[in-house]
Amino acid sequence: MPSFANPFNANVDRKISKEELVQAIRLDIAGELEAIYLYDAHIMATDDLLAKAVLSDIRDEEKAHMGELMALLRHLDPKEAEMFASGESEVKEMMEELGIKEPNLYEEHMPSLTVGSLKK
């Protein structure tokens, strides 16, 4: 749980190096992943449609944040970006070998709910 006793707890008293920023961004990505996991758990744990809609919307915003952080990480660490691309290529090759056209497995099992979709 976060500690709110000191609102400046995460502040640093100096500019950080690029390497330290890369590490901080990785930690931020981990935090976004944890938030996504927690929101999914809450969504699965309730039958309240409004709660599911609101939590799904918040979860999807966390996914967007993760995408932004990943783009920033690729910018800050081009070597890591090359490794991401290599891993992505490997998965695409496996998909071709298995005859899989689109990797939307997550969306199939965890559909995103919105207030608008619940009105239907």
Plain-language structure description:
- This protein has 120 residues and is mainly alpha-helical.
- It has one domain.
- It is 72% helix and 0% strand.
- It has 5 helices and no strands.
- It has helices at 18-44, 49-76, 78-98, 105-109, 115-119.
- Helix 1 runs antiparallel to helix 2 and helix 2 crosses helix 3.
- It is flat and about 50 Å long.
- It starts with 17 loop residues before the first helix and ends with a helix.
- The mean pLDDT is 85.
Topology:
Blueprint: H1 18-44, H2 49-76, H3 78-98, H4 105-109, H5 115-119
Summarize the structure.
By secondary structure, the chain is an all-alpha fold. The chain is 72% helix and 0% strand. It has helices at 18-44, 49-76, 78-98, 105-109, 115-119.
Cα radius of gyration in angstroms: 18 Å
Overall tally of structural domains: 1
Which sheet architecture does the biggest sheet show? none
The mean pLDDT is 85
- The residue ranges in which pLDDT falls below 50 over 5 or more consecutive positions are none
Contiguous helical run count = 5
**What's the SSE pattern?**
HHHHH
Instruction: State the helicity in percent bands.
Output: over 70%
State the separation between the terminal residues, measured CA to CA.
37 Å
User: Class by helix and strand content?
Assistant: mainly alpha
Rough shape? flat
Oligomer: single chain
In total, how many beta strands? 0
